[in-house]
Amino acid sequence: METIIKKTLSELPPKCRVVFTLSRMEGKKNQEIADLLGMSINTVKKQKQKALELLRLRLTPELLSFLLILPAL
Questions:
Q1: Which residue has the higher pLDDT, 71 or 67?
Q2: How many Å apart are CA 45 and CA 34, to the nearest integer?
Q3: Residue 12 C-beta-side C-alpha neighbours within 13 Å
């Protein structure tokens, strides 16, 4: 499962991958990500949305659910 998730994340466009990783894996808030990457908060939101859309297309519902609850574990 971890291998599939890592592979799928590596296939995301670079901005999406960085924003998604900072958000979901490191638990950073949108403003923190925007400040860290020097982008607007709206860009962060759009990149997160794009990443989720791409992940929904590529992962099974079970793997997507696991990935989205991962920071809570």
A1: 67
A2: 9
A3: 26
Answer yes or no: are the C-beta atoms of 16 and 47 closer than 8 Å.
Answer: yes
Alpha helix (H) ranges present in 1-73? 2-10, 14-20, 30-37, 41-58, 61-69
Residue 1, pLDDT > 70, answer no
Structure tokens at 72: 């809570």
Q: Over the range 27-48, which residues count as b (16 or more CB within 10 Å of their CB) and which as e?
A: ebebeebbeeeeeeeebbeebb
- What pTM, to 2 d.p., does this model score? 0.78
- Residues 27-45 have pLDDT tens digits of 999 999 999 999 999 999 9
Residue type present at position 47: Q
The label of the residue with tokens 């659910």 reads: 65
Residue with tokens 């990457």: 37
